Amino acid sequence: GVVFALRQSLEKFKELGIEISNVTTWGGGARNKLWRQIQADIFNLPILISPTQEGSAYGAAITAAVSVGIFSTIKEACREWIRIKEKILPNPENVAVYDRSYHIYRTLYPKLKDDFHTLSELAT
């Protein structure tokens, strides 16, 4: 479900005309080989693994560098500062399976949304 939700976000970017050719990941989740492959397969995009462990702080530093004029764009800053140690490619067989599952997920979520809120209230 988590990676399907992330895929929805990627699709929103595409709807806005923002082309995404890969996803870069770092930190704890990037250490899990299965998690990286699931992301590549569900997104149907290469997953680039950075050796950097503190992704949030690194992203903030990149944003600050652009804000103060060290770089003119986020893309330029990323090109200069982000290093890649590994690239995970989607497995076409898995992509086909996850695509079918994703379409089921997309229809289930609106039907279950109210139930999710009820479950959340029970937890508080």
Automatic annotation (TrEMBL):
<dbReference type="Pfam" id="PF02782">
    <property type="entry name" value="FGGY_C"/>
</dbReference>
<dbReference type="InterPro" id="IPR043129">
    <property type="entry name" value="ATPase_NBD"/>
</dbReference>
<dbReference type="InterPro" id="IPR018485">
    <property type="entry name" value="FGGY_C"/>
</dbReference>
<feature type="domain" description="Carbohydrate kinase FGGY C-terminal">
    <location>
        <begin position="1"/>
        <end position="67"/>
    </location>
</feature>
<dbReference type="GO" id="GO:0005975">
    <property type="term" value="P:carbohydrate metabolic process"/>
</dbReference>
<keyword id="KW-0418">Kinase</keyword>
<keyword id="KW-0808">Transferase</keyword>
<dbReference type="InterPro" id="IPR050406">
    <property type="entry name" value="FGGY_Carb_Kinase"/>
</dbReference>
<dbReference type="GO" id="GO:0016301">
    <property type="term" value="F:kinase activity"/>
</dbReference>
<protein>
    <recommendedName>
        <fullName>Carbohydrate kinase FGGY C-terminal domain-containing protein</fullName>
    </recommendedName>
</protein>
